[in-house]
Amino acid sequence: MESFQVGQVWSFEGREDDPNPCVIILEKESFRDTTAVHIQITGVKIQTSDGRILTEIGHVPVCEKSIRDSVQVYLGETSVREAGLEGIKVWRDAGGGVYNIQLKEIVSTIEQSLQ
């Protein structure tokens, strides 16, 4: 596949406890010297400090290379939820950056920050 498109769903190699990790492409844009791909991550198990288990991450900005290096199988397309798009707006307003590590490492990093 030539490039990631909005609404595409891809599987990726997750951590041992992540049952069916997938990404949904929310949006793509130029960002500094790379392409930022905004994604939603589903099919994970993230433990929070109060003991809750999260099964998805609504918005994560990632460089395109990290996604290319992580995804495994194209699973089809889905509609993009408004919550993910709201996360993009917050990211832009805050002048956020992008992750440039493997997707399963991103999940671990986010889990550590929530504990």
Key phrases:
5-stranded antiparallel β-sheet; 5 strands; alpha+beta; 115 residues
Task: Please outline what is shown here.
This protein has 115 residues and is of the alpha+beta class. It has helices at 64-70, 82-94, 103-114, and strands spanning 8-12, 22-31, 34-47, 53-63, 71-77.
What would you say this structure looks like, in words?
By secondary structure, the protein is α+β, with helices and mostly antiparallel strands. The protein has helices spanning 64-70, 82-94, 103-114, and strands spanning 8-12, 22-31, 34-47, 53-63, 71-77. It has one domain (8-114). Strand 2 and strand 3 (34-47) form a beta hairpin. The chain is globular.
Helix and strand layout, with pairings?
Elements: E1 8-12, E2 22-31, E3 34-47, E4 53-63, H1 64-70, E5 71-77, H2 82-94, H3 103-114
The rounded Rg comes to 13 Å
> What is the total number of structural domains?
1
Flag low-confidence runs.
none
Q: State the helical fraction.
A: 25-40%
- Structural class determined from secondary elements: alpha+beta
Q: What order do the strands of the largest sheet run in, or round the barrel if closed? A: 4-3-2-1-5
Using DSSP, what is the number of strands?
Answer: 5
| Straight-line distance between termini | 37 Å
Major pleated sheet: 5 strands, antiparallel
Strand content: 35-45%
Quick check: average pLDDT?
A: 91
Number of DSSP helical runs: 3
Give the overall shape: globular
- One letter per element, helices H and strands E, the order comes to EEEEHEHH
Which oligomeric state applies? single chain
